[in-house]
Amino acid sequence: MSKQVDRQPVEAEVIHQQPVLIQELTWWPPQAYDSSRPAEPVEKILFSFYNGALYRMLVTYDRSAIKGLTDEDMIRVVSAKYGAATRPVADVNFPTNPSYRATEKVIARWEDSQYSLNLLRSSWSNTFSIVMFTKQLDAQAGISIAESVKLEQQEVSQMEAERVKKEAVALEGSDRRTSRRFAPKISMAQRRNGLRNL
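^ thats the sequence. predicted structure below, dont judge the formating
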């Protein structure tokens, strides 16, 4: 799985192209057809790529599979694999994911100098999630996404200004044609009479 994800994300959705390429790929675990098997705890995993390099994974748990588990229960489960957790007063940003608010509060965190793993409870779906990211690339991606949003807003403003300008030019041309169409027709005799009266 990890080897496949580390390759260039060919089928990933392009989220931003400038100033760098930001892509996302959602993976759903295969459904079990045997009803006697326990439900898969993971509902889906969202992989985020920065210029083709994996920098973030968002693991969303299936609500039915973890029903009844408290924050403390989930911390114990994750700590069994990753060691003691810290309880920082911190948020994690979700700049491209509409399933979350702009930020979510961290319940517990496991980290070293390079990587950060954060346990969250989504305020939108009321289920647990884990966000894992490479600190350096995640920071770079955040800056790039903010720049990209700014560039896209500038492009939209420029396109809107060009549209308004084209409409104004078209309206002006229409007014000229209308005024010529309804202008009084003066015969040659009327013109000669008008010159004599001067």
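The mean pLDDT is 81.
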